[in-house]
């Protein structure tokens, strides 16, 4: 849960680097919360307003952590535009998110793996 809260605390930080673990833990917890909200709203027959509000609340933090994750692999934020390409863009983006970050310092900052030790 610390990874999720940490991303929310840095909700508008688009500089620096994010580890794979930070990105994927945020993604996983975000997915679980979204599924639980959808299930509860489905049981209650709600039109999904809470899910939409939650999605809007985590939109900026999601983009920010994705940008920092791209920075960790040595790519600029412009690579987010890959998500606009149907299917192929999403697959390439997932591969980028799964790649290990640069071991050395890059133009976006120091390796976050060594900062956590």
Helices and strands in order:
Blueprint (H helix, E strand, L loop, with lengths): L1 H8 L10 H25 L4 H9 L1 H14 L15 H11 L13 H4 L2
Helix pairs in contact: 1-2, 2-3, 2-4
What does this structure look like?
The protein is an all-alpha fold. Helix content is 61%, strand content 0%. It is globular.
Please tag this protein with its features.
mainly alpha, 117 residues
Mind telling me the C-alpha Rg?
15 Å
Strand pairing plus helix content: what structural class?
A: mainly alpha
Number of DSSP-assigned strands:
0
Specify the biggest β-sheet: none
Outline type? globular
The unreliable regions are: none
Kindly report how far apart the N and C termini lie.
18 Å
Q: Helical percent range?
A: 55-70%
What is the mean pLDDT?
A: 90
């Amino acid at each position: 849960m610390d990874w999720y809260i940490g991303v929310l605390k840095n909700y508008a930080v688009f500089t620096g680097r994010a580890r794979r673990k930070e990105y994927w833990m945020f993604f996983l917890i975000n997915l679980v919360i979204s599924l639980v909200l959808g299930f509860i709203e489905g049981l209650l027959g709600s039109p999904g307003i809470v899910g939409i509000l939650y999605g809007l609340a985590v939109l900026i933090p999601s983009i920010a952590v994705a940008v920092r994750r791209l920075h960790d692999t040595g790519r600029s934020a412009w690579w987010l535009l890959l998500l606009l390409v149907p299917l192929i863009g999403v697959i390439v983006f997932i591969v980028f998110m799964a790649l290990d970050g640069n071991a050395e310092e890059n133009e976006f900052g120091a390796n976050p793996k060594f900062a956590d030790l």
